[in-house]
Amino acid sequence: RAALGASLPLLQRDYRFERVWFWGCIQGLRGAYYIAEGLGPNRAAPRSRLYSLNCLDWSLLTPATEEMLAVAEQLNGRFQGDPSFEYNLAEINAEVAARLTEGGKEPVIKEEARLTATIEQIDRAVGIVPRGAFVKTPLGSVHENRHFEGLSLLEAKKLSSYFHFTEPVNLKNKTLLEKADLDPSTDFLDSLEHDIPRGSWSIQLEKGGTVVVLRSLLWLGLTFYHVPMTKQFGYVYFGTGEKNLDLPFML
Amino acid sequence: HGPYQPHEPGYGLDQPGYSPYEDEVPDPRTRMLAIKNAKAYLLKTSTRSGLNLYDHFANILTKILDEQPENTVDIIEDISKDVKWAQFRKKMDTLRDEHLTLPIFEAAEKCKALFVKEGGEEEREELDEEIGQPSLPNVMETAFYFEQAGIGLNKDESYYIFLSLKNLINVQPIRTCRFWGKILGLEMNYIIAEVQLHEGEGEEEEETAEEEVETVAEEEKGMGEAEEEGEEEEKEAEPPKSTYKPPPEIPREENGTGTNKYIYFVCNEPGKPWVKLPPVTPAQIVCARKIKKFFTGRLDAPIVSFPPFPGNEANYLRAQIARISAGTHISPTGFYQFANEDEEEEEGDAYEENPEFEPPPVAEMVESLAMWAHHVKGILKQGRCVWINPSQKSEENEEEDEEEEDKEDEGEEQEEERGLPLLTQISEDEGMKNIPAWTAQASTNLIPQYSVAILQSNRWPGAYAFASGRKFDNIYFGWGHKYSPESHTPALPPPAQAEYPSGLGITETVDPTVEEEIAFKIAQEEALAGEEEEEEEAEDD
User: Fold this and answer.
1) Which residue in A132, B224, B318, B454 is deepest, having the highest Cβ count within 10 Å?
2) What is d(CA B404, CA A242) in angstroms, rounded to the nearest whole number?
3) Are B372 and B455 within 8 A, CB to CB?
């Protein structure tokens, strides 16, 4: 863990990121992957992801394609811990395998690709930020709001004060009445209130209200923290990298 | 009011020759009038908010010059908004302060109370010497080792837990105590301590509880008999009696043995009072295996599930703790040994530390799983650690029942279940599909002399164990659920019971069709005609 402090700034220099941070850790059977993400000036651009097995040597992951995502959803089970491990698709899904073989490729998928796809899924599904932390300029690029001073304690307890940091899906479906109340510079993302299934987030105040912690129940292991009335927030994933499909039974 | 400093915008505009309107208004008097008009316009008070633009601009500029943020022109709108906000906040401050500070202060007070126990300790020390030193676990030490592995709580929180455990020991008569772990819940989390009480304590509660259960059962039986007599008197057609007899209840294990070897105390946060969890019954464990529910954080929350869980969240929590302990509490092989080597597996519950244990080096601990062994008995399918034959117990109950069914009907032959013997090595743990049951790592490859061997369980994600020399410990941080590669499928409800046995008397037969009836009639007439002919022939003879 101490190595992270040393290697992340180096990464920033090498890849010329404006911001680099530690995304989390996916535990495989034989080893763990440590993931870092880096961003250029536009915060909403696709992020570059890097992974490492020992926090020192980082390798870039290719951005995920839709095909990879679709295939990776079929894969169940833990990660192995070995990036070149190949999953045999033929057992899992014969159709996809058949398509691939027709295309001339082998019906295997490497663990690296699965890793990328999983990270992308997690980010899309549960990567959250507090309301007001990011603003959209009229040109369309997204910046951090330097005027953001944190949510108040009351706001921090409400699910509606947190947004998914991805392309909004539900925003257009809101009624005109609700849209009139929104502020287009800060409310351009989906809020957490309408997540399906209801109750898939657990909000807790720790230490008597000095820290708000949100935990996702859909991807077990994703934790988001925010210190109210300050600019500090962030999320991190520590887990096995598997979606919790039993959520409806568990609530 | 006017711009006085050279760097303020607008400075110099009222000097002759610098105004922007110079070409248009050469006359100084009209220019002055124009400026006054502009200023009057700026000073015009807004009807809604009581502000005027002039003051607002002045405030914005003051703020900008005071703070001097970067790229001011990009955030000028936000600054403007903030200045407006600042006008309003002053009125509401007093109300808000009261609300918000309550939860923070309450929690801080509780934490402070943890620290202030110095005064009562002198009295306690005498008591302690009589009973013997209760072993307070060194939570900080274990926290340090787990931190090497990257698992664990914040140091502050560990210290708070340490102090609350100390409180617990002072309050209850405890022999040994251990920090078991933390289970996360939806609204609040649970901090769990594993405890062994002194003998004789704590059993009184269980006995009264059992007596209550027995008296209730006797009352029910009394009612049942009265009903049966009443029904016999009525000899009219009655609805068929239900032939369902619930399977005999498997008695729970005694305190101090098997699944109830330890008693568990939980609290939601360090500083809050500790609550004792009730002992676990086999029925609860069997049911807990079939359901998968999140904990909410409140011990009295009901568990709505199918099959219906007998108990509330406190029982479910206790059942999960029992399963996790049975599945993942391990120690280096040879650390514990049986007290008596000839003891059979079922009775061998007592183990003790092996004084001749020599800790193997860390590298070996990591490489081979055979160096670790379970020191908690596994739970059988029945829900207990020691198998018991339920049909023996139920003999007493069945004699009282007037309606005796054959024992063979519902008492299926229950085979004796044998679990693994107590100190089996974990290499015998079966994995799921091709996932091994445990993952072993050394905490660091860089400094092998001081590294710690760490095991993570794959069957119960969140269970960790470490070993370094003679020290070892187990801990759990997680949601409290077992890992299964397939999704959880809840049990289907049983098929609806048949209302009546199907037999010849009840089963409906198909009515004969018209052709069949006619054919039958003809056949009958022919038979009759045939008989008459025979009779006639007989008469003729």
Assistant:
1) B318
2) 52
3) yes
Question: ipTM strictly over 0.90?
Answer: no
**B479 and A246 in contact by Cβ < 8 A?**
no
Confidence class for position B408, pLDDT limits 50, 70, 90 = very low
The pLDDT assigned to B53 comes to 74
Residues of B in contact with A250 (CB under 8 A): 292-294, 481
The confidence score (pLDDT) of residue A161 equals: 77
The answer to whether residue A105 neighbours chain B at the CB level (below 8 Å) is no
- Among residues A109, A126, A143, which one ends one of the domains? A126
Tell me, yes or no, whether A43 and A154 share the same domain. no
A86 shares its domain with A148: no
Residue A251 lies in a domain: no
Is residue A213 located within the same domain as residue A110? no
Interface test with B, best of A76, A204, A213 (most B CBs within 10 A): A204
Q: Would you call B435 and A154 a contact, using CB atoms and an 8 Å cutoff? A: no
Same domain, A11 and A122: yes
CA-CA distance, B462 to B356, in Å (whole number)? 32
Q: Which residue has the tokens 């594993």?
A: B194
User: CB–CB of A208 and B485 under 8 A?
Assistant: no
Residue of chain B whose alpha carbon sits nearest to that of A28 = B439
Q: With CB atoms and an 8 Å threshold, state whether A208 touches B150.
A: no
Task: Please give the residue of chain A at the shortest CA–CA distance from B186.
Answer: A202
Angle at which helix B53-67 crosses helix B28-43, to 10 degrees, equals 80
Q: Which of B396, B218, B187, B141 is nearest to B295 (CA)?
A: B187
Q: How far is residue B346 from each of residues B296, B350, B378, measured CA to CA in Å? A: 37, 11, 11
Max mean pLDDT range (A131-135, B193-197, B492-496): B193-197
Sorted by sequence, the CB contacts under 8 Å of residue A189 that are 6+ apart come out as: A129, A134, A163, A164, A165, A166, A168, A171
A78: nearest CB among B100, B188, B435: B435
**B500 close to B506: Cβ distance less than 8 angstroms:** yes
Q: Which residue of B has its CA nearest to A1?
A: B150
Q: Of A1, A154, A240, which is closest to B150 when you measure between CB atoms?
A: A1
Q: What is the pTM of this model?
A: 0.66
**H or E segment and range at residue B241:** none
**φ/ψ of residue B81, rounded to 5:** -65, -40
Listed ranges B250-254, B279-283, B431-435, B503-507; the one with the highest mean pLDDT: B279-283
For residue A209, which residues of chain B lie inside 8 Å, CB to CB?
Answer: 100, 103-104, 107
Q: Which domain holds residue A106?
A: 1-126
**Distance (Å, rounded) from C-alpha B34 to C-alpha B521?**
126
Q: How many CB atoms lie within 10 A of CB B431?
A: 13
